[in-house]
Automatic annotation (TrEMBL):
Keyword annotations of the record: Membrane, NAD, NADP, Oxidoreductase, Transmembrane, Transmembrane helix
Protein name: Dehydrogenase/reductase SDR family member 7B
A single BP term in Gene Ontology: lipid metabolic process
Parts of the chain that traverse the membrane: 34-53
Name of the gene this protein is made from: LOC113043759
Pfam families membership: adh_short (PF00106)
InterPro entries in the cross-refs: KR_dom (IPR057326), NAD(P)-bd_dom_sf (IPR036291), Sc_DH/Rdtase_CS (IPR020904), SDR_fam (IPR002347)
Coiled-coil segments: none
Amino acid sequence: MSSESFQDFIGQPKSREGVEFRMVSAHGRQMERMLGLGVGPLAAGTVGLLILLKVIQRLRHKQNLQDKVVVITGASSGLGKECARVFHAAGARLILCGRDQKRLQEVVEELRNKTYGKIQTYSPCTVTFDLSNTSRVSSAAEEILKCHGHVDVLINNAGISYRGNILDTHVSVQRDVMETNYFGPVALTQAILPSMVDRRSGHIVVISSVQGKISIPYRSAYSASKHATQAYFDCLRAEVDRFGLQVSVISPGYIRTNLSINAVTGDGSKYGVMDKTTAKGRDPEDVARAVLKAVCHKQKDVVLAGLLPTAAVYLRTLWPALYFRLMASRVTKEQRLKEE
Ligand SMILES: NC(=O)c1ccc[n+]([C@@H]2O[C@H](COP(=O)([O-])OP(=O)(O)OC[C@H]3O[C@@H](n4cnc5c(N)ncnc54)[C@H](OP(=O)(O)O)[C@@H]3O)[C@@H](O)[C@H]2O)c1
């Protein structure tokens, strides 16, 4: 067929550009018809497939805690005690840590005879030490490793809070909070880490705080210690990934525990007050379940906070000037309330 008769056959104008254009649009119409018939089911099928893949991936990577050796610091109260209950119910072999042997023993007594259907449970061991005494931490780590020969999951939960004005706070208080909340967990982690690297297996969890992502006034020592915690464990995660180790940083908002009562003030004395925000905080059992989920699903960074604190985390990054203004006006408001 000559080029002229071909043009006649398809009824296109004779200009070269015109032919190309109309041929493309004819092809386009055909495509449109095909897509018009199939785009809905195709999109639904793709989304369904992606969800299925995600579920399979989660199930494949899910860690079973039956018989796993789990160390929990600060297990004598609050979130640590709830973590002990939740991980015990999952069949873990617990090593509970804290400064007060009597209170740790009470947790052991509570859990000792509890059964949960077919789940095999174990009576927990205890190791007593003060995290702020870094020289004691390495011998405590040896005791921990002797209990079952290894550690599968280390939950760095113990911590103290602080309430105070920077102007009235001794540097020694800033340092003490840092010792308990930062250097203690760092020393314990580094003492346990080589055995995890040798086994090419292990999961390190740290309970940080939303205040590890944003700072609020009158919490300098606490917030600084939690920011340092976030930074250290983010580095650790990257460095131990090649050994197959997991690191999870959990950042909760307020939890209903004695944290504010046990907080220290600028002169090092106990604050001793249950703050309204803490009293209205999350149920520690819910937070403990979220910690369990983070371990089972190997979640790397979990923020457990309401809409406002979560928005504040984004605001601090995306519009810092506004965040700083809001925090400064918060101080002005609190000062005015104090003076009234
Ligand atoms: N409650 C909240 O609103 C909130 C919010 C975000 C994050 N967090 C974090 O959650 C974690 C648990 O706190 P919590 O709310 O459960 O408070 P908590 O009830 O006061 O418990 C703190 C635990 O840490 C232990 N601890 C404190 N200082 C220690 C030290 N020097 N050496 C060893 N253990 C020490 C305490 O044990 P002993 O006194 O028996 O030694 C206690 O078991 C902390 O890391 C905290 O920062 C809490």
